[in-house]
Amino acid sequence: MENNRKIPVAVLGVTGMVGQRFVQLLARHPWFRITAIASSERSAGKKYRDACHWLLDSEMPPEVGELVVQLAQPTLDAKIIFSALPAHIAREVEPLFADVGYSVCSNASAFRYEEDVPVIIPEINHDHTALLEKQKKNRGWKGTLVTSPNCTTSGIALPLKPLHEAFGIKKIFAVTMQAVSGAGYPGLSFLDIGDNVIPFIGGEEQKIETETLLLLGKIEGSQRIPANITISAQANRVNVKEGHTICLSLAFAQKPSREEIISVLENFKGIEDMPDLPSVPKQILIVRQEEDRPQPCKDRHANDGMSVTVGRIRVCPILDFRMVTVSHNTLRGAASGSIMNAELLVVKKMV
Ligand SMILES: NC(=O)c1ccc[n+]([C@@H]2O[C@H](COP(=O)([O-])OP(=O)(O)OC[C@H]3O[C@@H](n4cnc5c(N)ncnc54)[C@H](OP(=O)(O)O)[C@@H]3O)[C@@H](O)[C@H]2O)c1
């Protein structure tokens, strides 16, 4: 699509860890073009290249570098708003945009648990956009607010969706090893995380437990019914730059064989009526057979960081099966996931 026919979009929190990913991805997106960027008072009024400490390994897109950072106020020249704001700021700011007609696609946790705000990964629950009708009625907004799940939840819910559909998951035990970039920039001091593992990430275990059940749940009428699964999560911060690793043990209603698990994962193309979106990877779930994979530094970039890699699938002597997943926290788990949600809204004619 020619640049001037693309849909104008803005990024809030554009200088941060996730904001930078949005800039990198949107600069080459086939349908969207960045027309406005916003951050805090610290950055507002400066050109992006002066306000942002660019951390990614590609060059900052020069045309975005020339844009002036604005305040996060609902007067930005755009139709879609990608929000990479801290949750307490998102709580105040995102409704102001939705109220006056913008389509807000948020990475923040501020509204994920409200009954009329969908948490979406298109391949596993694109039908949850049905909640937006209720959202409009409840709130009287001219626009909409759709959220992406927490970065760790993506690496759990995506592989578990087809397994849940095929064999019925009854219990999930999840232990995470989460990258430092998940804490934003500048994040943790090297003196805290270097040579260390921190067995606590504030609020993370509750987020994983709640959001996984929302994502694996279903919509009945305009109600979201969480999946009936017992889940226990333990979250750890580890000295890895990008890519979250998760060890899962699962109990099933109908115990599958290892071969059946692999077949279901490898053949997953998304749920029924999955629309064709530019950001959907050609292989959503990749199964590795090597005994020492997946690893974040080797697998996080699979299919532009959009595939979840699963390995070490084997019998569990406590539950039924165990496995390890790796997913990219700022791509699949944040900016790319949110961009895919915006693509979904466009295809469903909700923008
Ligand atoms: N990092 C991840 O892997 C990840 C994954 C999924 C979801 N998320 C969520 O995505 C959001 C952003 O995370 P992050 O890791 O990118 O955080 P971050 O690196 O700390 O970036 C925060 C951004 O918010 C801006 N900001 C702060 N206060 C503001 C205000 N009052 N008004 C407007 N902008 C303000 C900052 O701008 P200034 O530079 O101007 O201060 C910065 O651009 C959070 O809600 C986080 O939980 C993060």
Please tell me about this protein's structure.
The chain has 351 residues and is of the alpha/beta class. The chain folds into two domains: 3-150 and 335-347, NAD(P)-binding Rossmann-like Domain (Rossmann fold); 152-328, Dihydrodipicolinate Reductase, domain 2, CATH 3.30.360. Helix content is 32%, strand content 23%. The chain contains 13 helices and 15 strands. The strands form three sheets. It has a seven-stranded mixed β-sheet, with helices on one face. A six-stranded parallel β-sheet has the order 3-2-1-4-5-6, sandwiched between helices. Strand 4 (80-83), helix 4 and strand 5 form a beta-alpha-beta unit. Helix 1 crosses helix 13 (331-347) and helix 7 (151-167) runs parallel beside helix 9 (204-215). The longest helix is centred in the middle third of the chain and has 17 residues, at 151-167. The model has no long low-confidence stretch (mean pLDDT 97). It binds NADP nicotinamide-adenine-dinucleotide phosphate. Residues 13-19, 39-40, 42-43, 72, 84-87, 89, 107-108, 151, 181-182, 184-185, 329-330, 333-334 line the site of NADP nicotinamide-adenine-dinucleotide phosphate.
Summarize the structure.
This protein has 351 residues and is of the alpha/beta class. The chain has helices at residues 17-26, 48-51, 62-65, 87-99, 122-125, 131-139, 151-167, 190-193, 204-215, 258-266, 296-299, 302-305, 331-347, and strands spanning 7-12, 32-39, 70-71, 80-83, 103-106, 144-147, 169-178, 197-198, 218-220, 223-225, 230-238, 244-252, 285-287, 308-315, 321-327. It is built from 13 helices and 15 strands.
